[in-house]
Structures are given as structure tokens and as C-alpha cells.
């Protein structure tokens, strides 16, 4: 299934070396969980069923407006990106879908692309449209906005691009369209805050109308950047009101880095789910703004608390609960393959910890207003080192126990550095 | 009408001294505005019609959890507070209503209280309920929440208190009930984020059901404090969703200090109005958290931008637009009478500046995406010194041109320091 | 040694029930660490040597300016507080010193107080002065500041109070004086930002001059509250410049909740240590402002990263490295004894994790700019569940393996609720 | 002097149309100020003497990591940029110096460049070095830092580049070197927070040693971006400690957008000046992060408060007070010429308002702790519309009364759109 990627023998060989330690740790943890009446294998099973998509653009080095520092062997085409995403999934066994971005990933034959992906073990996840950049040859500019533009022609172009994305997505087997617009303003007064929102609603309504019956339209809000005074869809409030206006197929997507400082994101997750509008996540981490750092690298406890809400939501919502999960990071200082493997690992570990919470004890303490007991119910689960569970799930599916070591051993990047065209310097914009 | 307050002769005498300069400045500004085809008297007329309520509790010195430093002559009863609020309105002529708080302002005879207020020129504005503190003799404690409590008895007590507030309000001639709850949690896990919101909705629904036909229920959100991990109604998103669930008489109240850092509050105002839920304001200013500083003292430009949205909203919404305006500040280092007079002045000045915006030019520039021209349309108005307009409106209504000087001349506080009981030391809580 | 507190038999009995599980987990972790060439007992030994002080005022319920909700059995005198702190240390064996606050903890005979503390196993840590509140009978008011006041008499009173604190501290066996002032302003212009700092420097210099040779003066900075526009010692920059002006006995104290949003506190720790001015910590956690939540309850990863810097600093600085550690929290919704035990546990666990970092691997990766390897060196240690290590250290010293369960079993609070005087309602200030 | 720029006749003609209104407003303001014993002409004189530099790179459109939207006629060479900066100064008469950036502005003959600048009325201000991007052909990469890099060769290259900048600066007549590094990390552990600072200190010390006797080295701190976990010089504390280590020629530069949320920047200005280290400013405005918006567009009151500190500092420091002032903005949605003219105008207006403060009244109120009177001393000055003063100073120097209208009338940009090479699409990095 994963032809031409990393040799399965190498994985097996590295795993053989790591197996004894893993088994020992897994057994010890199993005994510990047994004492709490938790069957470790059931948790491992849940982790085995868990997956998160990776974005094609995340396979390349990211950067800032100041600079981008490419690495040798970095992929520059959708074909090379699929290959690298194949390696990620081959080693972590948790990222079987890629999320493409158009026009960046445009090809002539999408059926062929779908087969190419399948050949490296991948399917396609949510389609991402792009109306925040101008493309060569484009007739209208997004300089003053896209779906909320004052220009009919600009809005029409943006709508048509999104509808084209749906069409491509159908060919690729996707069923979600993620709409993020950078529309907004840099000066007080630059835009009419209400009329621009109304124009957005009207335009996104046209996209919604073109959505196949089993598709979702995911609205992604963002507080700021590229707009630095106001953004049309700046917060979850604007997002959910727009989603309500559109209808049941419209839902809200939460990017962890798109919020105001100090905001309680797990409560936003709970609220969106309470109103039936929790559509999905872009996982990453941040300390300052939309830093797009590796998931859980800055605040792993927050990630756990979000999964705690997701586990609650899953229990309360039943089969209707199927949020779309994607990693969305900018890998400015690491090898993107390493970052995405370890991020998937961290996300899965957060889910595993949330599954380990003694919910009966938690709910009981909540009812009794025993704040300490309720908190400790969460904290006990958070403290548990679930590394063996996630590694076990991975290894059983054919992945690598020690992903970084195995990947580095494989010499993948060095080999690609020989084969692939060199990326030019990213000199930055300002 | 304002018996026993500051002598009208003193006001007249001080005004006589200040009149010539005011007339000169007013005339000069009038000529400047004439060149822009604005009749200064029409703006002055709008300011004359403008009013903002003051809270009874604002008449006393405020403090922090660390300390409160009382001043001699500070009011300690609702009767003394009404007197001080009467002085505020006598001098600024813009605060003809007070907003009471229960149980703080409880009396035996509300009809008498209404007459007492009328005697110093005041009526009653929105009623504020209090379920964030325990009162002596209260059967249930709000230690673990009020409207969202897990205890049926606690929720019932909180609902009944609010319904009693409505009843008192009817006697006082009010028609708004402002509901702010401090409910929330200090620990992850302490409360179920969804169930607590559901309990809140159910309880506030009972209050809503008891609302007279011409009343509004104003929901006030707050990001944090007294709860430091999660708050049930923490942001405008939670607030508007609750208001939508309740029905048309429920609206959202914006306190300027209750938001996350960096948030664009004027856009929140625009969104709430767009969805018919802009119920009112608690005016104050802040640099860090809910600092409750004097309105416009930290960021007067933001206050102007909010009024710019309010003027837009008024034009678009017509007669249905009638948000409730109140000053809500904590006067920790000033004489509260001085702070509230100057705050009313600053709020009115922000409104005057917003009225001076060339809206045709603004909208035209917005349509053309001429960011600089649009911004300058706002900035030109903001730069104008509207002091003479607000002072003129005040003086014509019988108020003081120079409010601080007149107030200090009157010796009001020193006189009250002789008459009133001394406030005890506020030693703070931590 | 801990007469009259919780019965040692109860602790032993509860421990007997928990011992087998602890031994099993400890052994399993020992085997895991062995594989990384770490002797678990050496880590346990370091934890056994670790201690953190608790503040006397933390033994009572805290609150906000809105309300305080007391609990039955809450201590109200220094004698009762010492008793409760004795229980904390009896169960956690990690908090053998209390940090008193004057005038709150004033008594007639400090030698007797010292013996009283010793009788429950406690000594005295840093003395905290208080010039942010007015006390009954005080001749000067701190309403307009203390050490930075424009009034000579006020500054003199504040200096004398601090010198009295030193004198009391000598009698109690302390050797640190922590100086936090709430001095600052609520309005632009209210204070001259430079002259107020100069007055502070002059006044604190007089305190410094009165310091015994082996004492330290710890300067505590805070961004805001009670002052909401400017604070005289608002950040680590002002703090270290003041400490440099004073001399070698002056150092900086870091309270984790006193910083601007998003700030990298661990880097501040590194900078202060780099310049020889890292004096100590007030441990707590926060999400919004100076929330004074339980240590590690919101962001345990940040606490780990701070201890990572402390371990680095200790290695680099040798015996001169002896920062003062104290818990400083406001226990608004929990039993303070439970919160402080669990906070000490979380702080010690963070230290244990920092000790588990493979520093050779970390430094090697840093030198090679291998960001992923460096990060994973930290993350591997952070992921380890060190609960057995801290519990083992505690149990070996006579403490309780399961502190909460043991404490609740003891019925301490219910017993005290019978014996102690009831606390009045804390109605809040605003 | 300003050959080939905008025709002086056009300026004169437009001014003739605007003169009467200006004279009327100026006279009215003069009368108002007379009443406060302020001679308007003395303020106008101070504004005439005021200047602020503009950065060469600011003459082009800026952008974000997502996109850049060029405009027709945008300058792409240092020669075209000088021309545009000449126009700015021709119209506003307040920006007689440009601040170049290397290697962006490299030419073969700097003497010729100096003459070219002089021909359009310009001199050179602080030199900006660039070690945050890699240049084609550069031997070492700044991917892992520059002055703080772990690599000797990288640090040496960065030092040599800065020394080359000094050499170029001498030829251009400059006497300040501004050093901003993007050095930092994206992951906890990635860099040793202390060792990286030590390496920075050592490297910048080599640059300092190469500084001519009458030069200053300006250290610019920045909280985040491009590094998203830690930055080597992240705050004013790190900046001033580094400047102190270096010596008297090293000073600190304050960029208004480089601080944590909510921070009191005017107090930082006061502190830096108190310790003799206030080197200069990069003026801009921001709402979220380093937004680089037009000066005073978001928070004009903060800009006024900063100038209030600068006026205080000037009075206290005498002739030693000579901070370097520069506009540093990213013009993403406006014509850069318009933005820089209006920014200079807003900066000068803030200075004018600060000069209008009644300092005797302010200081007296501060001494008496009369917070309201002190605040009103500032607020009265802030409220004054100083537009006529700044316009008068400009017009008397030959600039345009209405800068935007005159500039647009001139057709400068349209003409340049014919002459200049088109800028390529800035497609952004992520």
C-alpha cells in the first residue's frame, strides 16, 4: 500500500529493538489502569480508530512575512507533498487523509491524483479554498476583500472559485469545504462593519446553495491577520451566527490559534457543540498570535481540556458527532514530516488522556460542587503517561514505535534532497 | 426641582464668568462646521437630547479586593446616593436616571423612593439584580453559582430574587432588568461547561416569563472575575445565543471592560445590532481587565468608534433603536460625583464627534475601498474639539459650564462630610 | 512533633492501604528510568530535599472584590492558621515553613509564636509587609501610595513599618523581607511616572539600609491591580533596575500571575538569574490576570518550563543559587488545606520532571540547532508520570500517600467547624 | 531643492484655496490659547522644528505572510524610494531624513546616493542592518539565528554585516545603527535561553567596539515574530540590560508594536529615560501584534501620552535628550506616500498637544494627589484640535495645507505607474 516510501523492513527492524521496552511499559500501565477498572486495550482500540488529516501545504517549510528558510529535499509539488504525507502516515498510522488547498494543489487530472494518493495510503479530506491571495492571470484582485468585497465581480469570482473547489473535491472523494477568508480592514472606517458582513453572508450563501447534500461547509473564524483592525469572521460569535443563517450543512471550524489572548477555547468548543455547530478543528499551538506551532508544544494541558470536551460531546451527541480534525501548522524550524508525526502523536495522547478520565467521579463531583475532586478527576488522567498506549496502537497498525529515530534512519529527506528541485529563498515581504 | 442640592445661584454665577469664553469658542467652532455644511446648533440639539443613567452604587468610593479607601462625606444609604446623583445631574444635565441595585438599595416604600428621586430631578433606569453575593439571612448560598447552580433551591432563590427585582422596578417606573451573574468556575472540570449553561438558560427563562410586556431583560456577559477559569456568560457569543433562546424581549448588554484583550468591541456592537440584540451599555474604560475606570480615560478613540457604530445603527434601525446607556465605574481614587460628571461629558463628546462624521464621504470611500479617505472621514470628526458643544448644551439646560470648578466651589462634599456617617475602613478581602 | 494535628495512626493506616499500588507503580517507573540510566531513588532523594513555604493568609478562604464565601472551620487567627499549616505539612511533608504577613499576623510575643509554630513542625519564611491597606488607628493613609507617596510622612510610615517587619522577622528566625507595594495610578497624569519611581527608590533604600547582613530584600513586581493605569514596580525590568540600584542583598521575586498576557515567564526567570537577581517565587496559576489559582491547575507545562530553567540555573550557579519558594494563592472555592497540599505536590512534580530531562541530549540538540530533538528532550521528561516519586518521598517522610482522602477521613475541618469562631460574610467591595 | 517632484505651483495653488479657512481656525485657536496664556506661535515654532525620519522600505506596499497586493507605480529601487520620500517631505515638511536598510538599499556608490537624496531634499538617518533573512550568495544561513547563533561563522558574518552597515552609514552621513534581530525559538528547549543571550551580548559587543565615537547603537526589542516561543531581545528589560553591558553609546529603541498586550508603553519610555537609555522610536500603531498600522490610527491617546513623557523627559534631561524618531509602518492597504504624510501629521499633532499641557497645573495636582485635576490637565490638552497649528507650520515651510488632496491632484502615482516597472505578485509564504 505504501510503495516507494520508507521500507517496511526498516520500520520492523527498529520496532524490534523498541518492542521489549514498550511491552514492559504497556504492561505496567495496564496494571495501573486495571486498579481503576479501566481495560487498557479498550483505550488502545479507541486510539487505533482515531485519525486526523494533514494539510498538503504543511509538508513544506513555513515562514513569516520576514523570511522563510527552506530545507533541502522540501517538496514543491502536490505529488511530492503526497509522498511526504504518505511517509507521515506510514510511520504514525493516524493521518490517512490529506486536506488539499486550491489553487495551490491544482492538477489536470483529479482522478489520477486520487489514485496517486491511494497508492501511498492516503485519501482526501476537507477542501480549502483560497481567496486571500491573487493568482497570476486572475481577473479580479482580492486586495479589498473577497466574499465580502464591495465589488460584485470580486464576490462572484470568489464564489465561483469555491464552487470549483466543491467540484474538485467531489472528484477527490472529499465532503467538506473549509472557507476561510482574510477579509477585513486595517483602519477604523475602512469598511462598514455591518454591510461587509451582509455581503459575506450573501456570497457564502451562494456557495452553500451549491453544496452537495452530504457535504458540510466549515466556516473558519480568525481574530486578526492578514487584517489588523477588523476581520469579517473574527470570532466564534460571528461564525455561529453565519452558520445559523446558512443552514444545517454549515458548521464552525475552530483553529486553536485564531482567538483573543486568554480566551477559554474549550468552552467555545462546548458552546458550538451545544448549538449543533461544531464542525471541526485546525490543530496547532500558539503563545502569541496565530503562531501555527506544533500541536501541544506550548500548552498541552489546553489540548487535553479540549479533548475532554470532545469526549463529553461525543457521549452526549451520539452518532451525529463527527467533527473534522486537521493539523494546521507552519513548520518554520523543523522537518515538516517530523513535526506532523509528533503532532499527531500529541493529539492522540490528549484524546487518550481524556478517555481515561473517570467521568462518573467527575460528574458526581460537579454535581456536589466539590471543585477539588472534580479537578483531580481530570488531573489524575492528565498525569498519566499514555505514551505506551499511542505507541502500541501505532505499532499494531504497522507504524514505527520511535517515529523520529526510524524516520531519521531512513534517510528519506537526504534522498529527496538529491531527487527534488531546490526551493528558492523565501525573502519575506517586509 | 433640585431642592437642597447645589444652589442654582452658584451655578449661574460661575457660568456667568465662563460664558464669554464659551460663546467665543462655540462661535468659532460654528464657523468651522459651517464650512462643512454642518449647523452646529443641530448637533447641540442632539446632545441636549442625549442622556445616560448613573448607578446608585457608583456614588460611593469603589475599591479592589486589596483595599477600599473611603472619603469623608461618602454616601452610605440609597437616600444619600440619590442626593449625590441629583447633584451630578444638576451640574451635567445629562444623567436624569439612576440605576438601582438590589438588595443594596432595598427600602420599605418604593413609591416614596420614587418621589424622593423625583424631588432631586431623577427617575429610575434598569434594575440590577445581585446573585453574586450572599446576604445576611439568605437561605441558600451562591458560593457555587446562582442561576446555573446544580442546586434546584439555589436556582429558585436566584429566580425569585430577579422576579422581586422586576416587581420593585415596576414600582419605581423602570422597564429593564439587567442580569449579570458571576457564575463560573476556578478549576478545569469544576463545572460541566454545557450543563451549567443549560441550567442557566432554564432559570433565566423563568425570569423572562415573568417579564412585563414592555420590559427588556438585558444579559450582561463578562470574560472573567469573579470566576477565573470559566464564566457561564463569558462573551457576546454566549450572550446572544442565550438572548435568542429566550425571545424578543431579551437583549445583550455590553460592558466595555468585560472583553478579552485586543478585541474589537465596536464590531461586537455592530454584530449585536445586526441581529437585533443590542440592548445597552455599561460605560467605563479599562487597560487590563474589568478595571472600571472613568469612561474614555484610557482609550477615548475606542469610545468614539463605538458611538460611530451607534450612529450608524440608529440610522439603519430607526425607532426600534433604543439601547440602554449607563455609566458603570468604580471610583477608587476620585470623588465619584466628579468622575461621573466628567464621564457623562466624555460620553456625550464621543457621541457629538460621531454625529460630526461626514457619512456620505465615509460611505463613498468605503464603497470605493479608499481606506485612507474613509479613515480620514472618521479622523477629521474625531479631531474636532467638541467641548463647546457639550458645554453649551449643558449650560442651556441649567447645568454648569465648568462642572468641576463649580462643584468644588459649592463645598458639597465637605458639607456632607459634616452631616453623613463615616464609612468604615474597607480592609479588602485578600 | 505534630501534636494535636491529624493522628499519625490515621495516616499510617491510609498509607497501608495505598502502599502496594504505590510500590508497584514506583517499581515500574524505576525500571523505565533505568533504561535511560536514571536512578529513580536519586530523583526521589532530590524531591525529599525540596520544600516550599506556605503563606499564613492562604489558610483562609480568599475572595474577590465581589464576594468572599467563607467555609465552616476556617481559621481566623494566626494561631489557627499555624495549626492548619501544620496539617498541610504533616500530610505533604514539603511545606515546613510559613510566610507571615504584618500587621495581619501581629502578636504580643513573637518568641512564643515561634515556639507555637515549632510545636506543629513549622518555621518561618519571608516576612511580608503591608502598605496597601489602611489599618485602624494608623496615622497616615496609603490611599495615594506608600513607599512612592508624595507625602514625606506617608513614606516614613511605610519605611518604619517595613523596618518593624524586619525586627519581627529576626525574632521569628526569618531572613527575607518581601516588599510588594500596590502603589500606582488609575488615570493618565495622576502620578509622575519618573518622580514616583524615584521616591520609591529612595524609600526602599532606607529599608535596605536597615537590613541585617544575611537578609535579602525581595522586590515583587505586578503589572496591575490595585492600580489600573500604572504601577510603580509593574514588570521585571523595573524590578531588576531597582534591585541593582539597591545592592547585592536586593533581589527580584517572580509571582507567576503578575505578568502581561502571553509573556514568556521562564525567560524572565533565566534573565533574572543571568544577572544574579533571581530572589524567589510566589507560585500560583492564572488564566486572565492575577487570578491566584492553584499552582499548575491552568498551565502545568509552564510550571515545568520554569523548573527547567531553575534546574539549569542551579547547575550553572552552584551554591549561590537559593531562591525563596512560596505558594501564594487565593482559595476561593476549595478548602485551603487541600489546595495547598495539592499545589505543593504539583510544584514538586514539576521539579521532578525537570530533573528527569536528559540535559546532555538537550544541550547537544541545542548546539546542533536540532529544534525537534531539543524539544523532545523536554517533552519526554514532561510526559513521565512522576506521581509515584513524589508520593514515595512524601510517604517516606511520614506524609500521606493519598493526601486528599486522608485529610477528608480525618474530619479535621468538621472538627474545627465546631471549635472555631464563624467567619462573617465577606460582602465584597463593589 | 525638490526638483522633479511635485510642482511647487500646484502646492501653492491648493494652499491658496485652503488659506482662508486655515487662517480663521488658527486665529480662533490662538484666541483660545491666549486665554490660557499660551502663545500659539511658540507652539507652531516647536512643531516647525520637529522632524521624524521615514524608512526607505516603507515607500513600498507592505504585506503579510499570506499576501502582498502591490499598487501600480510602487517604487522598487532605492532611487525610486528616495523620490517618493522626497514627495512626502515636500508636502509635509517634517520628514527630511530617510532611514535605509541593508542589504535592501545597497548601491555601488554611496556618495552619489547621498547627493541623489540631497537633490530631493533628504538626508540619511539611522542605518538598519538585516540578519533576519538570507540573501542570495550569502555563505552562512540565519535559519538558526544570527548574533546569538551557536555557530561562530554565523555570528561572525552577522557582526561583519553590521560593521559594513556602519561603514556605509558614515558615507551617507548617518550616526545611528539600529540592530534588530529576529533571533529566538519556536519550541520550548530549542535554545538555551541564557547561553543564546550571552552569545548575543558577545557578538553585539564586537559591533559596539567598531562604532565611531559619535555614533549610537540602538537596540530594538520585540516580543515575538518571527520567533514564536522566545525572542532573545524580547522586552525592554532585556534591551536595557544589554545596553548597560555594552556602554554609553548603546541605547534602547522602542517600536510601539513590539510589546505584550495591555502594557503601559509610556511608562517604559519614562523608565528608559530615567536610566539614560532612551534611544529612539519606531512609530506605528497596532491592535493585536506587530500590526505596523499607521501611527495614531488605532490609539491616538496612547501616542499623546508617550509624547507627554517625551516632553517631560526633554525638560528634565536638557540637551542630552535627543531620541531618534522614525516612522516604521507596513502600508498594506494604502498608498505609502499618503500614509507616511498623515502619520507624520498625527505624530506632530501628538507632540503639539503634549506641549499644550499646563505642566504647572499637572505637577501641582500630582503633588496634591488630586487625580481628577491631574488627569484633566492632560485631557484638556488632548481635546484641543491642533490641526491648524500643524498645518500652519507645514504651510509656512512650503508644504501643503491639505496634503492628501494636493498629492492626489498632482497625479504623482499615476505618472509613476507609467514610468516604473511593475511589481510582481507577492504570493505570501504560507
From TrEMBL, chains A, B, C, D:
PANTHER family tied to this protein: L-RHAMNOSE ISOMERASE
Entries under SUPFAM superfamilies matching the protein: Xylose isomerase-like
Protein's name according to its UniProt entry: TIM barrel protein
The species this protein was found in: Sphingopyxis jiangsuensis
Domain Xylose isomerase-like TIM barrel: 96-302
Protein keywords: Isomerase, Manganese, Metal-binding
Domain of life from the UniProt record: Bacteria
InterPro entries with a match to the protein in the record: L-rhamnose_isomerase, Xyl_isomerase-like_sf, Xyl_isomerase-like_TIM-brl
